[in-house]
Amino acid sequence: MPNQIDSRALISPSAQLGENVKIGPYATIGENVKIGSSCVIDSFAQVLGYTEIGENSHIFSYAVIGNIPQDLKYKGDRSFLIVGKNNKIREFVTINPGTDKDSKTIVGRGNLFMAYSHVGHDCIVGDENVFANSATLAGHVRVGNKAVIGGLAAVHQFCSIGELAIIGGCSKVVQDIPPYSMCDGHPAIVCGLNSIGLKRSEFSNEEIRILKKAFKIIFFENHVLSKAKEIVRETLPCSKEIDTLIEFMAFSKRGVKKRI
Q1: What count of other Cβ atoms lies within 10 Å of the Cβ of residue 253?
Q2: Residues with catalytic function
Q3: 9, 204, 227, 235: which could join 223 in a potential S-S bond, CB 3.0 to 4.6 Å?
Q4: Domain 4-194 falls in which CATH fold?
């Protein structure tokens, strides 16, 4: 289908548009932007910089995607923002490219960014995550798949958020958030297993039962991490989920806050 572009939209002649793209009045598309097929860019939205938007994504009014990073170290070098397909980017969302020359911010597919949420420079965001209103990632944050970041939660730079984790609204995240966890607080700590999220992702009752036992050993008993890993390996069946959890803990750079 032909593109539907309002005559009042501000589109650089060098921007690359796929097929069946809809662009509303007063939307701005910069000269180095690539918009995939079947995307919708609503009125007053801005897509700037060296930014690529994957097919079938929807950018709502007043979102600003790809503007220069909010980083004092930025010296004006070319950097990139790559956004995958099927993303919904709501009103007033900001997503920034990398800071250093040729660096990238990367966003996967199927994410929902609710109004006023923010993804800082050099972040890597996976697939099918939900960022509630005003959820904020500082620079260099990594997010796995199917995580939920609550409204007004703020994530410190260089933190990692594991897959299928859920972070409570207004949380202050200064250390890593393990996969499958439910975290909350100031600072955020592990409160338990994200059982509802696991059920929605079709984990079996047995898989959830085993993960609950692993969480109890690692996060709620008074063991150092090396001992907790040893107990988990010796007492629980091997599984991909256990491997994912233990590997995340082993490679955590900022550590994980426990109740004990």
Answers
A1: 10
A2: 121-122, 139
A3: 227
A4: UDP N-Acetylglucosamine Acyltransferase; domain 1 (2.160.10)
